Amino acid sequence: MKNITDLGIKRVERPIKVMQFGEGNFLRAFADYFIDILNEKTDFNGNIAIVKPISFGNLDNFKKQDNLYTVVLRGRQNGEVVNSSRVVTSVQKAIDAKEDYDEYMALAKLDTLRFVISNTTEAGITLDKNDTFDELPNSYPGKLTKFLFERFKAFGGDMAKGLIMLPVELIDYNGRKLKECVLALADIWNLGDDFKNWLQNANTFCSTLVDRIVTGYPRGEAEKICEELGYTDNLVDVGEPFGLWVIESDKDISGELPFAKAQLPVVFTDNVKPYKDRKVRVLNGAHTSSVLVSYLGGINIVRDMMNDQVFGKMARSIVDDEIVPMVPLPIDDVKDFANSVYERFDNPFINHELLSISLNSVSKWTARVLPSFKDNYEKNGKLPKLLTFSFAGLLAFYCSSDLREDSLYAKRNDGTEYVIHDNLDVLKFFADNSKKSEEEYVKAVASNVDFWGEDLTKFNGFTQEVTNYLEKIKINPQSAVKYILED
Fold first, then answer.
1. First-to-last CA distance in the chain?
2. Which pLDDT tens digit goes with each residue over 221-278?
3. How many CA atoms lie within 13 Å of 58's alpha carbon, on the beta-carbon side?
4. Are the C-beta atoms of residues 48 and 35 closer than 8 Å to each other?
5. Across residues 374-398, what is the average pLDDT?
6. Which CATH number fits domain 2-271: 3.10.620.30, 3.10.180.10, 3.30.565.10, 3.40.50.720?
7. How far apart are CA 276 and CA 301, in angstroms?
8. For residue 476, what are the contacts with CB-CB under 8 A and spacing of at least 6?
9. How far apart are CA 111 and CA 249, in angstroms?
10. CATH 3.40.50.720 boundaries in the chain
11. Model pLDDT for residues 97-110, shown as the tens digit of each residue
């Protein structure tokens, strides 16, 4: 079979406009994919220099394939099954920050460089006071600070030579936190007030929200996918068709990144929070509020849950009736997002196991479901029945006294044993309380302020309703769902 470099597809030489910290699957199937489309459909005309920021791994496949690779997007979109591929030609070079240090720092002197994209894990944007300026710093903020100082010196503090930072690490207000770290290091390293002024006024640190499931290299399917493509690609990267990039900035940068002209799903805003709330409440909240009781009812993967007449209707009703109306964005936008979530859950190419989603469900329910529950209660003056039911589903799923080492073991009504993974203190609490009567068990869990941040028994009728639902779920989860939908 041919190699990707034998196809006659050439990497297009363009000015390097983007430096990217991180060579991982997500950035390649998301940001680099978007930039490749920008180059095709607009006058952006800019390539990417990938910088491997840590010593783990190597760039051998990038060198062997002349930085070419294929993104395969599979799933449902606009009611149709999508299975598309694109060879990305916009990565100009891939270098190691340590092994190719001089080449890495030379990027700071590039007149064409304008953007810095990063994905260095959630722990990547932290201040490491042990970083030193004289050698390559360990942390990403350290590497970036030294790089920016090199650029500041190279251009004599020219205010037109600042950069736009686009971190996509999954932490709240990632751009603001990155800026805080860089400014702190500028102080610790005594880099001077002129440099700090240049950092503050010539550079833009954007906070972003990103959304796309990227499963990466398709181990177990690679041979089949390469046969479909007609060539071998050791960097093939698989993801879903859905994508969303929300970019918060205190100044308008949309003209420099003409995503709209390329019809790409990018939103520029001065406030990323409503979009984060939408994602957490609708996408993540739909998972957390529906998968536990669905698993107890015999469902194993998300797609089967969505196609089940009972549990699928429950999941959609929870979102449509009690989550969507509480999101602080235009209702039509939120409904459209919810519909895209249903398509993503019904992806025929991904077997997303409910048990994998069940990990740490106590903290997830607090972050993803409780805000919608409280907003409903405050607005309507009564318990939202479906979200209340989801709490009963959580209690039913966690109801076991069989604690072994660091996991809690339980059984479905059909005898299937499953493992509950959560914080050990959480598991011990459930193990200690699960043999109580249903009402006492509900009271104990609902009043645990350490779990929920408040005592949930204060909501009028909560204990009684949850107890009622819990009793029904224990007898027959499917019948319990039918009851709540018909009530």
1. 60
2. 999 999 999 999 999 999 999 999 999 999 999 999 999 999 999 999 999 999 999 9
3. 4
4. yes
5. 98
6. 3.40.50.720
7. 25
8. 413
9. 23
10. 2-271
11. 999 999 999 999 99
How many residues does this entry show for the chain?
A: 487
What's the longest Cα–Cα distance across the chain? Answer: 74
Of 424, 425, 369, give the one whose Cα is nearest residue 394: 369
Structure tokens that stand for 338 in this block: 């919810």
Q: List the one residue out of 286, 363, 362, 292 whose CA is nearest residue 327.
A: 286
Percent of the chain past pLDDT 70, that is, above it, reads 100
List, for residues 389-421, the tens digit of each pLDDT value. Answer: 999 999 999 999 999 988 999 999 999 999 999
CA separation for the pair 291, 302 (Å, rounded): 8
CB 71 within 8 A of CB 86: yes
Helix (H, G, I), strand (E, B) or coil at 4: helix
- Sequence letter at residue 376: N
Beta carbons of 92 and 13 less than 8 angstroms apart: yes
